[in-house]
Amino acid sequence: MGPVSRRPRTQTVPTDAGEARITWFRATAAPPRLVLAVSHGAGGGIEARDLQALAAALPGHGVTVALVEQPWRVAGKKVAPAPKTLDTGWRGLWPTLAEPGLPVVAGGRSAGARVACRTATELGAAAVLALSFPLHPPGKPEKSRADELLGTGVPTLVVQGGNDPFGRPAEFPPGPYALTEVPYGDHGFAVPKKSGRSEAQTMEVITGAVTGWLTSLG
Predict the structure, then answer these.
(1) Of 31, 157, 202, 211, which one is least surrounded by beta carbons within 10 A?
(2) What is the homologous superfamily of the domain 20-217 according to CATH?
């Protein structure tokens, strides 16, 4: 008998906002403890470096990772719809994410993080992972979205680049959440060559922080 396949499995899910897609990376360590469902931002998809790093690292720690593509991405559109429509797509996916019968941690990067924060309590998420939370539009700190982050109602981890123009770690208000800074990282967690840090080192900061935090959830 050969080894168990670790290839991801893709699943399409109908929602009221259109057809969405989940790519499952099943836990390889038994027994599986939880599902981490993470969606993309408004400017990219699940190929983002941080999402792929989590999908590679977490299954070995008993975490099934579900990378979620919102309907607008599945349909090949270039521009994300309004936040209300993003929330509708996420709600429609939730029963499928919960189907394995494990606690589900809601997560996302940028716009996806906002969706996870806004809907966490309503959907019964065990916790929220906010990657590159867009605290405000670049150059407009007065247009704060802190209320979304502060209102999750569940354990929350923010992972934020030190040079993120959508909100540097020092700009975040105090609140009932944890925050991990990714040194020199921009909104996509890219770091300049002059920093002396490699992409692999940067991804290790992210995966290490998320692994430790998920473990602390019990």
Answers:
(1) 31
(2) Alpha/Beta hydrolase fold, catalytic domain (3.40.50.1820)
Domain boundaries, the chain: 20-217
- pLDDT tens-place string over residues 122-139: 999 999 999 999 999 999
Would you state the structure tokens that stand for residue 65, as one six-digit string? 């990772």
Find, among 183, 151, 155, the residue nearest to 169 by Cα.
Answer: 183
Give me the amino acid identity at 189.
Answer: F
Stretches where the chain sits below pLDDT 50 are 1-5
pTM above 0.85, yes or no: yes
Nearest to 63 by CA among 20, 104, 111, 91: 104
Which long-range contacts does 164-167 make (Cβ < 8 Å, 24+ apart)?
164/132, 165/138, 165/139, 166/110, 166/132, 166/133, 166/134, 166/135, 166/136, 166/137, 166/138, 167/133, 167/134, 167/135, 167/136
